[in-house]
Amino acid sequence: MNKKDFDRIYVKVLTPTQKQVIELFLQGLTDQEIVNSIGANDRTLAIKHIKNICEKFQINNSGNWKDSLVELFIKYQPELVHPKLLEKYGYTSNPDLPQGSEPLKSTYYINRDNCESVCYQQIQKPGAMIRIKASKQMGKTSLIKRIIEQARNEEYYAVELNLSQIDRYQLTDTYTFLRGFYAYFRSEFPSAPSLDEWDKDLPSKIHCTRLFQNLLRKLEQNLVLILDEVDILFEYPEIYRDFFPMLRYWHERGKESETWEKLRLVISHSTQYYGQLDINESPFGNVGLVIQLEEFTPEQVKILALRHLVTEEDAISIMKMVGGHPYLVRLAFYHLYYGHLTVKQLIEEAPTDGGIYRQHLMEISKILQDNREMLSVFKQIINQQAVDLATKTIEIYKLEGMGLIKQGGNGVKVRCKLYQLYFRDRLYV
Predict the structure, then answer these.
(1) Rounded-to-integer distance, Cα 333 and Cα 327, Å
(2) Residue 34 backbone dihedrals phi, psi, to 5 degrees
């Protein structure tokens, strides 16, 4: 069942009593406690209600229908599920320090307004290409993990290559890079044609394409190829100007070839490094489905707060400081969950070198200090000075890619109060 069908049934099909019963059930109440809460006397009435609810959600498992119901709500409405039930069903109950991607069973992963279901539907389409982009620490790799899981649930082959793992010496020219790229792919998919078949006299793009084509001809199932952190190539124009058009070509072939339609591409990159690209050229042109990961909405932050046992009032205070930035919000909730700080202390220390965001802010500061023009424009925006957008296009492009500013109306402003306060007195042009 997809999210759209789930929402329709929950909102429009369940009766008010059934909604009350399911919410009590998900809070861990016994059948007797449920019937007492709804003002009934017959204990079996709770079971009857839950079975009817299962039927409406198309759950027909005779043996574990209660388990299936809980799993369904963990997937689509986890804020209703009590932490003890989450723990019982194998989901993490105590949050880990947010580092890297969220594990598949993490209850701290937040779905983004059908973004996941759109990606799941897209990889089922012949020759599909999905392009996931956002600034750093916005959840790109966490989403990729879930796309991979869905691909394998569809019984597709799924191969993930993180291009940051490619050695620097292999980034000297297109030929060396493509050989290294294909060798990396084959290490993850050993049944692919051997590098012994690589023809040194044939143009490397053509030969790499032929090897993939030969593999696709043999495959009975579709192949989902996931390329993460392709932004590592942005500082190597002589490579990405060959590599990205090759990927576009593969995607275009999928529209007309039964062989190439088996390939589905998922490409992820950070906009943090857009400044290294020519502003007039798009890495992939206007092809594929673009997924731009944005900040969490207030409702999504509220869900994340509930999972960390953080009050709505404290969640609002955090949002006033950092907006809906997934990593910054999650880090604050982690510290509040374990009582490392009160929300008052956290807010007061956040824009200082002693706060929980120190490392994040220092990394941004170093990038700014290494780019004087961008720093100068950012300083103007912080001080609410007029910025000539027509002449500062490149700098605005870079700052927006880093997630430091956002455009609205006819102007730009700092993305959140944290950046405004921290950088106000720390940037020197």
Answers:
(1) 10
(2) -65, -50
Q: 415, 402 in Cβ contact below 8 A?
A: no
pLDDT per residue over 102-135, tens digit each? 988 788 888 887 789 899 999 999 999 999 999 9
Assessment of whether the complete model's pTM goes beyond 0.70: yes
Q: How many CA atoms lie within 13 A of 308 on its CB side?
A: 29
Beta partners for residue 292, in sequence order: 133
Backbone φ and ψ of 344, nearest 5°: -65, -45
- The 10s digit of each residue's pLDDT in 56-108 is 998 876 567 888 888 888 878 877 888 778 777 766 668 889 988 998 878 88
Kindly report the CA angle at 307 between 87 and 318, in degrees rounded to 5?
A: 155
pLDDT range class, residue 293, cuts 50, 70, 90 = very high
List 291's β-bridge partners, or say none. 132
Mean pLDDT of the chain: 89
Q: Could you give the CA distance from residue 166 to residue 243 in angstroms, rounded to a whole number?
A: 14
Confirm if 133 and 291 have CB atoms less than 8 A apart: yes
Distances from the Cα of 7 to the Cα of 14, 73, 119, angstroms: 10, 11, 18
HSE-up of residue 202 (Cα within 13 Å, Cβ side): 13
Give alpha helix (H) positions in 129-203: 140-153, 174-188
Q: Which of 96, 89, 132, 136 is nearest to 112 (CA)?
A: 132
Give me the helices (H) in 267-323, please: 298-307, 312-322
394's tokens? 């490149």
